[in-house]
Design goal:
- The chain is mainly alpha-helical and 189 residues long.
- The chain has a domain of 119 residues.
- It has two helices and no strands.
Length: 189
């Protein structure tokens, strides 16, 4: 009896290996195209997200460049106006210095006020630039988070769908094994 049991053990193992191969083939036939479809969908999703992120970056970069050009233009204009006004006033002061010292003092006071105003204006411009930069940075972070959340949601949906199919594959495999065992059972007795 021991030799018969030993002879039957390799046959059972070979049968299990063949069954396992058959189950793998059945699984590949049933779900192979769907797995390739999932791979294609993941690839397209990654490409689309990359393209969208590049578009957002490009758009943000363009907005930042336009804002920077506007601010530089405004600062330059203010500086040019200030320089022009300073030159005019200094010339007037030089022409009238000998005759009206009181007028000179008044003009110097106005120049000082203009410089203070220009410094305040530049400070305000800097604050506005900082606020707009912060807002644009926050917007960029929000867009990035939205895209990341959307990608994770879609990936989770695909994973959930794949999990359902794997469970179906297990049920079908188990059913195939039971059917095979039932068909092998009456022949053995």
């Amino acid at each position: 009896m021991d030799s018969q049991e030993q002879n039957m053990t390799p046959n059972r193992e070979n049968g299990r290996v063949a069954e396992s191969d058959n189950v793998d083939r059945i699984r590949n036939i049933l779900f192979g195209s769907q797995m390739r479809d999932y791979d294609d969908r993941f690839q397209k999703l990654e490409e689309r997200l990359g393209h969208d992120a590049a578009g957002v970056r490009s758009e943000l970069q363009e907005k930042l460049q336009a804002l920077e050009a506007l601010i530089k233009g405004e600062a330059e204009s203010v500086c040019n106006r200030l320089n022009a006004e300073q030159s005019e006033r200094r010339q007037a002061v030089e022409n009238l210095a000998q005759e009206m010292s009181d007028t000179v003092r008044g003009l110097e006071s106005k120049i000082t006020n203009l410089e203070n105003k220009a410094a305040q204006d530049i400070g305000q411009l800097r604050e506005q630039i900082l606020e707009q930069t912060k807002a644009l940075s926050a917007e960029l972070n929000n867009k990035h988070d939205e895209m990341k959340d959307r990608f994770e949601r879609e990936a989770r949906q695909i994973r959930d769908a794949m999990t359902g199919r794997e469970a179906l594959a297990e049920v079908l495999s188990e059913l195939a094994l039971r059917l095979k065992n039932e068909s092998a059972g009456p022949a053995a007795s």
